[in-house]
Amino acid sequence: MQFDLVVVGAGAAGLFCAGLAGQRGLRVLVIDHAEKVAEKIRISGGGRCNFTNRDAGPANFISNNPAFCRSALARYSSQDFIALVQKHGIAFHEKHKGQLFCDDSAEQIIRMLLDECEAGGVQRWQPCTVADVRRMETATDAEPAFELDTSRGRVLTARLVIATGGLSIPKIGASDWGLRLAQRFGHAIVEPRPALVPLTFDAQQWAPFSALSGLSLPVVVSTGKGKEKGRFLEDLLFTHRGLSGPAILQISSFWQEGQALQIDLAPEQNLQEQLMGAKSDSKRQLGNVLAALFPQRLAQAWIERLGLNSQRSMPECKDKDLQNLAQQLQAWQLTPNGSEGWRKAEVMRGGVDTRELSSQTMESKRVPGLFFIGEVMDVTGWLGGYNFQWAWASAAACANSL
Ligand code: FDA
């Protein structure tokens, strides 16, 4: 079998690229080793798929080569994807900070991508595995460049797109196949790490906080320095093993092993001023004052942690203790011992080093005709629809160059 384009990976980026290329008149084959296409779209956004972010821009992405994503994002913006969603009659709503979700189901986005593929006459093989890929010595512009040994036979193609995604959630089809292939063709890999993932703590260190499991509150969390610094105002969730919630998922993408997190549990407040201001009120006790500012369980946990007495009347509290309490609540420092790993991570940080790829077309600078799109590359979005926007934008940059 011979094609103009073979895409390995029928996920967000792969299906979108295949549909666009097919509609440009190319004979396209998409191969996926999973039974079902686009499993990550299906489970995304709690089943409603946060398919883009209205405000997506280069600042919302992490990469060793931060300028790389600029061109593709500018040429295929969230507005372009919104127009496609509207063309397919999919109803959606904005939930939080520009995040757009389907009103009904993520399945609608999958259906839309499959319809686009059908409109482009794209062939789909799945489940189908690729055992080997060879670049043919004789390759010219007019001749096929790659030979693939697949579980459905030998395939020849002029161009090959790798859209095998990241390493998170192995049980629904994630694999390192794309990364290994990139390496085999001489590409450097930026070390893959789980990102957008809950963070864990040493059991002993976490013991005083595990009773807070299930509690959620808005915080400002930060870590790192200079260009590597991350800072987010979002909700934090206490769990049995550590911390989760949007604030922690966001900061996990910036967190490096051994680094501390700084958490302000009372963002946009001056707690020291509030506590000191309450000192003259002889009718109030420390526990009540704190419980008016924080969830009761959290207030009690911090009072106990610092060995204070919640029933002490405010005038009896020492200035030093109140200052320390405010400091501990507004600049809580703690160092995770790890993360929940690939099993729970929403995305992979790292991947194929983009310095060896064209930012205009996603083509390898080493191997003509070989392209990488989507999460397999070292471009990682924040939480909030940015990762899908990168899948769409990188796929469009590639397909529109063919
Ligand atoms: P994607 O993972 O979509 O597709 C890769 C495809 O390649 C898969 O179909 C896989 O089976 C196939 N494949 C892998 N190895 C192969 C091999 N060796 N041979 C053949 N096929 C192979 N993002 C966002 O913007 N908004 C959101 O709401 C969410 N929510 C979310 C929830 C959860 C639980 C997860 C795990 C992830 C998200 N994401 C997200 C992230 C988003 O799903 C992800 O970034 C994109 O799906 C990446 O698109 P890709 O096409 O690059 O990979």
UniProtKB/TrEMBL annotation:
What is any Pfam family matched here? HI0933_like
Highest rank taxon of the organism: Bacteria
**InterPro entries named among the record's database cross-references:** BaiN-like (IPR004792), BaiN-like_dom_sf (IPR023166), FAD/NAD-bd_sf (IPR036188), RsdA/BaiN/AoA(So)-like_dom (IPR055178), RsdA/BaiN/AoA(So)_Rossmann (IPR057661)
* Record domain RsdA/BaiN/AoA(So)-like insert: where: 193-347
Q: Which residues form a coiled coil?
A: none
Entries under NCBIfam families matching the protein: aminoacetone oxidase family FAD-binding enzyme (TIGR00275)
Name this polypeptide is given: Putative Rossmann fold flavoprotein
Q: What organism does this protein naturally occur in?
A: Roseateles oligotrophus
